Amino acid sequence: MSIALLHSRTTLGIRAVPVRVEIHLGPGLPGFTVVGLADTAVRESKDRVRSALINGGFRIPQQRITVNLAPADLPKDGGRFDLPIAVGILLASGQLGRVDLKDMEWIGELALSGALSPVPAVLPGALAAARDGHTLVVPAANGDEAALAGADTLAVNSLTELCAHLKGDTRLPLHAPPASPGDDTGGAPCLSQIRGQPAAKRVLEIAAAGGHSLLMSGPPGAGKSMLASRLPGLLPPLDRERALEVAAIHSLRHARPAGAFLQPPYRAPHHTASAAALVGGGGRPRPGEISLAHEGVLFLDEMPEFQPRVLEVLREPLETGEVHIARAAQQVTFPARFQLVAAMNPCPCGYLGDPEKSCGYECEKAKRYQRRLSGPLLDRIDLHLEVPAVSPDTLLGAADGEPSRRVRERVLAARACQLHRQGRLNRELDAERLMEALGPHKAWLTGVMERLELSARALHRSLRVARTIADLAGSEVIRREHLREALSYRQNLLKP
Prior knowledge:
The chain is α/β, with parallel strands linked by helices. It has helices at residues 40-43, 45-55, 82-92, 122-132, 143-148, 159-167, 198-210, 224-230, 240-251, 275-279, 289-292, 308-312, 315-320, 362-370, 375-379, 392-396, 404-422, 431-436, 442-452, 456-472, 480-488; strands spanning 3-12, 15-26, 31-35, 64-70, 104-106, 109-110, 116-117, 135-139, 152-156, 214-217, 266-267, 280-281, 286-287, 297-300, 322-326, 331-335, 339-344, 383-386. It contains 21 helices and 18 strands. The model has no long low-confidence stretch (mean pLDDT 88).
């Protein structure tokens, strides 16, 4: 046999697209050609494969070797095709004998010694292989990641080890999936460690229960970053389907640790991050921070210090839960259902209104500073909270807060109520359903809208928050006190 066919996958967004790896040994001067819209890393595979075969004790056919990666119009990148190319050459040259590879897929990069090196984006391919009922062959370092998807996985250390298995000399067992991690908070810091700030802790509980976005404003040292870091510990663990989706996104960059499989992700990019770093991009689009925070928390500290055009890219994902990246060659969509938590100082010096520490130009400096956050973006943030400085007595006193575990129980109960009633979190409720629940409060809300100058979007977001407050209180209906509390979190913090 002078031709061989093996199956692999490349990624398009978080989808794994089938790739046929065809190897032909033909007459002519010895040579090695790779075709099929391969990038530089793929074309360099011929040198890695040649060295790996020699160092593994195999023979290089003295023929013209042509490798075709089909379909030809689909871009391919990385070293993930090294393994199927090497196995295809061995099969086409008769060095493996007759083996049935019909229901197998191959992903792996070869070192010059013949060892298999790990590659990114294995999990999307493993999920696709599991759906098709195929056995997936991957490097040993990718074994846990691939087995999480439920695919039959062969995790191998070297090309020599793999060939011994294919010939039947030394059979390799299927890789067992890693032990399922528990549903604890994964070592997230506890809410009880924060001194004072009862209002902030209350808002954090509301945000966790309904999946709401949150903006905290206050002086330096008030505890804004500490509060944000406690939010993941209040969130429920991911179910398996959502955990796999999150892991597939992270796999495009680097695999998530198995111990963090069920934990909601927490991302905190620096304020110097570019728009591409936040939403993703590149010639072959890769996910950005907002997609890496999918089903978890995106924390933006010092929010006004981000470039305005960077912040504005958050507007669409906050509404749709998706990021669309268009390039000349392709368009990809990444999921981005994240929970935004942001923190800021009220002015550049951070001490707006303080008679001793303020810069003294509160009117002009604060207005310019606060104007870096646009009205449409602020409209999309559900909860606005002023976080005051903590007094020395409170700071040095005994711990006075509930532990995260107890707050988490109330959050879980509120979320269970939402899922039972409407099949989704309150942050995703549509306006029509919200209006049905208002009943006798409509006339009162009309006056509130005019007095607070609320937009329609701001009103709807406040109503979603009120629904969450009612769920935390165990109330089937939204009461006036729930609306008042929700609307108190829409006060404009940014007026000096």
